[in-house]
Amino acid sequence: MEQLQSLTIIGSENCQDVVGAASWPLSKSHSSRAISDHMFMRISRRTFLAGAAASNLLRAAEPVIDIHQHTNYAGRTDEELIAHQRTMGITRTVLLPAGSKYGLAVGAGGNDSCRALAQEVPEQFVFFTNELPDLPEARQALEKYLNAGAIGIGEQKFNVQCDSPFIHLVADVAQEFGVPVLMHFQHDVYNMGIERFHTVLEKHPKASIIGHAQTWWGNIDRNHDQTVLYPKTKVTPGGITDRLLSDYPNMFGDLSAGSGLNALRRDEDHAREFLVRHQDKLMYGSDCDDRVGQGPACSGAQCLETLRRLAPAKEILNKILFRNASRVLKIVV
After folding, report:
1. Which of 143, 181, 239, 252 could link 153 by a cystine bridge, Cβ 3.0 to 4.6 Å?
2. Is there a contact between 117 and 94 (Cβ–Cβ < 8 Å)?
3. pLDDT (0 to 100) of residue 51
4. Closest CA to 125 of 152, 93, 79
């Protein structure tokens, strides 16, 4: 999760009558059209959200699985999130909760918030579970929601070393349940020490790990300066991220947020080669908190545009937009 920032869809817990019921009896002379004009209609919040979600299928040029979104992101409502995803043409969306504290630094909703929306609109949303890995109750919390239908763990975005016993615990749970973990790597802040992360992958070969954020994407470059979060220089292949994706079958990449977009745009010649080289490892995500779902305010929409422009073949694009996520996260589209 990285912060960037309207379309508002009006909804309520129980939307009131759209067309009032007629207060007089209908005669035989009324046409069927007149009868329908006076029918009592009540639209529930679930019907509204499900209808909005279903319209995505009519808009997308191809299926798109968004592996990175949040409820209550910077105060955005569920209705605004639905509208945002619909505007982008998203088919299925993965909701990543914050765990019990800190809101992933942007006020993101927790486990119950993500589960509730996924249960309310299962046609569009699935959910992960999350917890601070250094809490004594971390394993219990993760297992509770995995048993309740969560399909992964994350976004792990906490101030720990990436090869600490806490992250090994998370990987243990993921391997036991056969689900992926999505991790936010940010130098000196979250999941620190990316140069040692290979040890986690080696110890947990059946735990699929999805890398995300500034330090993850900066390290596509062999000459990366770890203190620079959004590098603009040309890329020399062979960085830590490049090697982890190449060398470990259980390592994947989440192209969401400004960091993923920057990795694609900073050196587009390299990006085209990178998409080919790691076509079976990369997944689309948005991780944007805007309300519009299009244009310069929406990094998710910009990432879609960039991928469609840079991917050298339709099959490679389809892998990144939905096939890889469908396979790794077991999401049906």
Report:
1. 181
2. no
3. 55
4. 93
Specify the residue for token string 């869809």: 9
Q: Is there a single domain that holds both residue 29 and residue 116? A: no
CATH number at residue 170: 3.20.20.140
- C-alpha–C-alpha distance, residues 61 and 318, integer Å: 11
pLDDT tens digits, residue range 269-304?
A: 999 999 999 999 999 999 999 999 999 999 999 999
Domain that residue 291 falls in: 53-329
CA angle 68, 72, 74 (to 5 degrees): 90
Q: Which region holds residue 128: left if phi is over 0, alpha if psi is between -120 and 50, else beta?
A: beta
**Is the bond into 120 cis (omega within 30 degrees of 0)?**
no
Q: What is the DSSP letter of 5?
A: -
Examine the domain organization and report whether 174 and 301 are in the same domain: yes
- Domain co-membership, 182 together with 304: yes
252 pLDDT higher than 90: yes
**Residue 301 in 3-state DSSP?**
helix
**Closest by alpha carbon to 237, among 277, 210, 194?**
277
